[in-house]
Amino acid sequence: MANLSYILTLQSEGAQSGPYYEATFITGAYFTPVVSGSPAYLPNPGSTATVVIPSGSYSYLAFKLRGADDPCEICYSTEVVYTVTGSAPVFTCCTGSILTTALSASVVNLTYNSGTGASCYDCSFITFQTSSNGLDFGGDKTGSCGVSQSVTFTPPTASCPATTIYYRAQQTCTTDSGNVTSSYWVTSSYTGATASVCCTPSITNIEPANPETSSLTVSFSSGSDGCCINCVSMSIVSSSNGTTYGSEITLPCTASSFTTNAPTEGNTLYFKIYQTCSGSVTSSFSAVDSYTYPSSQTLFEFTGCGRGNTVGGACSDAANNNRTFVSDCDTSTFGVGCVVYTNPGGTTLLTGFDYVFMNGAVWEINSVTGVITAYSSTQC
After folding, report:
1. Which of 109, 124, 233, 274 is most buried, most CB within 10 Å of its CB?
2. Could you tell me the CA-to-CA distances from 41 to 44, 50, 248, 283 in Å, in that order?
3. What pLDDT, in 10s, does the model give residues 295-351?
4. What φ, ψ does residue 23 adopt, rounded to 5°?
5. What is the rounded distance in angstroms from the CA atom of residue 275 to the CA atom of residue 258?
6. 26 neighbors 34 (Cβ within 8 angstroms)
């Protein structure tokens, strides 16, 4: 351990001093020797010499001064006791620091200093932990104590986006009363290489292309970000049960949709898509999306109605034109969630307008699906 910062200054007295003194350090009530100071020469009255007291936990410190070869013998007393006041420092298991984290010879090399200082307990070992999110740490690995030490880790696998691994460390010290640990060191991190991958496209929408011809339009988006390999083609497959899929339909990378036959009334058709990239690399299949053709339903007719892309527009149209609409809801249940059609057979959705004046009030309509989504507090 390092020495305490307690320094005693001895001063010679009388007409002639010395020539030497010898200091013995003691603790407590008994003058039990701890260590002897080096002889110091006090040649003249008023001469001084200093002694640094060794480290330790003492209730008080003192030493006895004894002349070695004093020709005067009365220049100073051989039993004078000098007492040093103050308290010993509080020792802790000190916290170290991570210096660098970098790839070296295919491993992540982390360099560090273990905590050192006058009040540090002796380091026993260092524990390192890793985390993929900077919050949840584990996977203990032991490192050595000292200055400019290093420990190696396996780098993260190249991925898209690149993976970041976080590191932290804790020092364990050994004392007479047992092991104590330091605080965790400031977190460091290493980000791995970015790997190009064949990105997975996604299905964005499935809707009737034209209800009267029972066809479906399946819209999709090719996967794209900073690490996608160039697309060569896309392939889509369909299934009537969500388990067994049929033949692939190959589409160009520039395509964003395709049209196919809709399922029969009351049945469902499932779709998923994948991408082929340069080098014959393929992506994963997208999530499965589906469309269920509605069963026959009773439709209810509304007359004297108008429509427009504003509340006022719907009201104005209602005042000047008589229109006929049908819905899957009757007068008593008409409201949010009902579907509105423009033909008596209920095969053409009311689309392209945001509002419709029906049943004495203005309703907001989804301009793609014809579904009533909200009730307007403004009435005509």
Report:
1. 274
2. 9, 11, 101, 87
3. 667 788 887 788 888 888 888 876 666 778 888 888 888 888 888 888 777 778 888
4. -105, 135
5. 15
6. yes
Rounded distance between C-alpha atoms, residue 292 and residue 340, angstroms: 18
Structure tokens at 282: 């393929």
**Which residues make Cβ contacts (< 8 Å) with residue 251, sequence separation at least 6?**
233, 234, 235, 236, 258
User: From the CA atom positions of the chain, what is the Rg in Å?
Assistant: 44
CB burial class (10 A; 0-12, 13-18, 19+) of residue 25? buried
Choice among 66-70, 96-100, 370-374 with the minimum mean pLDDT: 66-70
Cis peptide before 211 (omega within 30 of 0): no
Q: How far apart are CA 330 and CA 307, in angstroms?
A: 19
Q: Does residue 370 come out as left (phi exceeding 0), alpha (psi in the -120 to 50 range) or beta?
A: left
CA distance 101 to 191: 10
Residue 109 in this model has a pLDDT that exceeds 90: yes
Q: What does 224-256 look like in DSSP terms, one character per residue? A: -STTBPPEEEEEEEEESSSSSB---EEE-TT--
Q: In this structure, which amino acid lies at residue 172?
A: T
Q: Is the dihedral of CA 361, 367, 371, 377 positive or negative?
A: negative
Question: What are the residue ranges spanned by the domains of the chain?
Answer: 7-84, 97-191, 202-292, 300-375
Residue identified by tokens 């701890």 is 34
How sure is the predictor about 222, in pLDDT bands with cuts at 50, 70 and 90? confident
Architecture of domain 202-292: Sandwich (2.60)
Instruction: Supply the pTM of this predicted model.
Output: 0.43
Record: fold of 97-191: Immunoglobulin-like (2.60.40)
Contacts of 82 (CB under 8 A, 6+ apart): 8, 10, 62, 63, 65
On whether the CB atoms of residues 52 and 6 are closer than 8 A, the answer is yes
Split at pLDDT 50, 70, 90, the class of 84 is very low
Tokens in use for 54? 């060794």
Q: How many CB atoms lie within 10 A of CB 224?
A: 12
